[in-house]
Amino acid sequence: MVPSTKSSPVKSPLSSPEASTSSARTSPVSNSIASASLEGQSEQLSEQIKPAAVEEESKTSIDSEEDDKPLSSRLRMKPKPQKKTSSLVSGKRPLDEANVSKQSSVKRPKVSESSTSAKNKQVSAKKEAKEEEDDYFITIADRAKKVGSDNKSSVALTKPKKVTKVGSSSIKKTIKKDKKGSNFSKYSKSTKVAPSSNDGQEKWATLVHNGVIFPPPYKPHGVKMLYNGEPANLTPEQEEVATMYALMKDTEYVQKKTFRNNFWNDWQKLLGKRHVIQKLDACDYTPIYDWYQNEKEKKKQLSKEDKKALQEEKLKQEEKYMWAIVDGVKEKVGNFRVEPPGLFRGRGEHPKLGKLKRRIRPSDVTINIGKDAPIPECPIPGESWKEVRHDNMVTWLAFWNDPINQKLFKYVFLSPSSSLKGQSDKEKYEKARMLKDYIGNIRAAYTKDFTSKDGAKRQIAVATYLIDKLALRAGNEKEDDEADTVGCCTLKVENVQAIAPNSLEFNFLGKDSIRYENTVEVEVPVYKAIIQFQAGKRGNDDLFDKLDTSKLNAHLKELMPGLTAKVFRTYNASITLDNILNKETREGDVSEKLVVYQHANKEVAIICNHQRTVSKSHDAQMSKLMEKIGGLQGTLKELKTDLDRVRKGKPPLEDANGKRKRNLTPEALEKKIANTTEKIEKMEADMRTKEDLKTVALGTSKTNYLDPRITVAWCKRHEVPLEKIFNKFLLEKFAWAMDVDFDFRF
DNA sequence: GCAACCACTTAGGACCCGGTAA
DNA sequence: TTACCGGGTCCTAAGTGGTTGC
């Protein structure tokens, strides 16, 4: 991991605890699902719906033929998933001291044994990786032919229950570096992971790490801010918090009343009642702001060598915290840096905006580490950890209470590239793939319930439909001290407007206070049900008053083992990518294929409502491009005129400066025209893409929703270098997906 | 049945840095 | 040489969902 070069300008030794588009969105759902005749359907909700593929091996899709059958013939009893018993291996953090050892009383065992075994395992892992690499000796195209003949890709497409052999040895032997020298397995990680990391199971056997690193103590700068135009004296603690505020001068936060009020309340506690500073409005933080800008500039002006030296120094300090050894394997730690103090930057209209996030000390931090591992030395002399635990039912290495909301915790986890995270990532996508086999029957079941006499059932059906069709989030209840955002189950009456004959207009703030605006045509029974749910209610009342996420998820679990609302998002995102890639990819050069990928990625981002704010320079950038295109069009016109004249035996026209242009042959002019036209087309395409994507965030879906195996397999099939799609972070995160068969379909 | 608690995933924005056009 | 831009990295907020205890 590249260490952050960001400086933490505001650090304080505080200790007081509380001083502390309506765009035409692509619907992933076919409209055919509403027509099913469901006469005779059993009302047994406790039955799990068996995947269609299991019932009818030859059936390839969730089509109406199946839906037309009586549900009794489509539903079969499936054993309920075993309820987890709370026994010795409870996944919960124990409240008592049974699993806790106080730092002082813990004897430090020698590290040698585990580290030796770690080394051995790493050596053997490396050896395996090398052996795998040596096996690649056939081109991708040959491999495609070979595997294609052995295992027709159409089979993969038509048999929904096909189990994909990730990294099967037969396939590996047919892989070779592609023509461009990019081979996928160089990114794959030969890790030995437990078959499942389900809850209620041990996450690791041995865990060694060095704890966390704290931000350096606050260094007072002594620059005086002004109060009523006069320099004001501040203690280092007061100055630290003033500096936090001063540095936010250019942000929108300071425009918000809540932010200013919360900051003032917390800062005033530090200032004390009798301080000369009595109101925020009379404060002028400019001297501190200017000082900081100056410091920043000085830093920028440092020589390359000095910058490098600083970076190396930081790396040296942090190196030991960057790694953990999990079951003998060295793994990256994610967020090993304790969050520095600062002013709370919540999203949207968060009621706690601007509150002081006090400094976290070792006495706030609980460490989780293997029983036999040495307890990390507390990096701040004279202080000690709050607690040391040895809980292998969880994956966190450390946690502390969130100073803004004491009920919440901040965890230190392994990096997304670790085997532990990779394993759970893979399980997530496997679950979403499983939904593919159930979705037909699930859709048929909720369609039937749109008109159920049972109001709760009707609400569950409509909510599930919205989650499926619009990829809405579940929508847990929120506390009063959080931003007022909603998901499906918490939609308010005012968030949905029925538009005759059968459209719904959604408008609400979702996660991160990102607005969801979408008008969508829905099944008529859904439309009618929504109107009915709204009847007699006020705008701020719950649309789904008989429903919450627990009830919804409990119901979903009856339909498929492990099914929850969020699985639909993963499923719809991944299946959309898979479908678009396979439908739209044509023979051509890599850049054309990348356009297809980006288009698919964009569709998914729109479905999931992944937005970003338009960059400040967007308009200027567009104007510049327009200008350039205009210039090129002028050139093109001139070239065409010249060609015309040359063909008629006349000399070319004079240029803009009145100078005679060089005589060119018609062929040379044609070539120039072609080049200029190509340039214009490329620029226009760039412009369209830029405008198209100005509010769309593509990264979130790539990182969290798109099964990487779809991408890897597609790259293999179409000889697209994976590095064109996955950056370093994603290549590492998805190491588990690299050995997928080239014919993998989601 | 429900609230509280806990552990984990998902999310957008800030900031940095290197490549490239002017 | 400088300015600009875009991608990468880091940060941490904000979700989801399981479990527990009353």
From TrEMBL:
Residues 292-320, 666-693 form a coiled coil. The active site is at Y705. It comes from the Eukaryota. Keywords: Coiled coil, DNA-binding, Isomerase, Nucleus, Phosphoprotein, Topoisomerase. The keyword Metal-binding does not apply. Residues 1-28 have a biased composition (Low complexity). GO terms for biological process: chromosome segregation; DNA replication; DNA topological change. InterPro entries: DNA_brk_join_enz, DNA_topo_DNA_db_N_dom1, DNA_topo_DNA_db_N_dom2, TopoI, TopoI_C_dom, TopoI_cat_a-hlx-sub_euk, TopoI_cat_a/b-sub_euk, TopoI_cat_euk. GO terms for molecular function: DNA binding; DNA topoisomerase type I (single strand cut, ATP-independent) activity. Its EC number is 5.6.2.1. It catalyses: ATP-independent breakage of single-stranded DNA, followed by passage and rejoining. It holds the Pfam family Topoisom_I_N. The keyword rRNA-binding does not apply. It is an enzyme of class 5 (isomerase). Residues 343-719 form the DNA topoisomerase I eukaryotic-type domain. SMART domains: TOPEUc (SM00435). One of its GO terms (cellular component) is chromosome. It is found in: Nucleus. Residues 29-47, 100-123, 183-199 have a biased composition (Polar residues). Residues 1-136, 177-199 are annotated as: Disordered. Releases the supercoiling and torsional tension of DNA introduced during the DNA replication and transcription by transiently cleaving and rejoining one strand of the DNA duplex. Introduces a single-strand break via transesterification at the specific target site 5'-[CT]CCTTp site in duplex DNA. The scissile phosphodiester is attacked by the catalytic tyrosine of the enzyme, resulting in the formation of a DNA-(3'-phosphotyrosyl)-enzyme intermediate and the expulsion of a 5'-OH DNA strand. The free DNA strand then undergoes passage around the unbroken strand thus removing DNA supercoils. Belongs to the type IB topoisomerase family. PANTHER family: DNA TOPOISOMERASE 1 BETA, DNA TOPOISOMERASE I. This is DNA topoisomerase I. The lineage of its organism: Eukaryota, Viridiplantae, Streptophyta, Embryophyta, Tracheophyta.
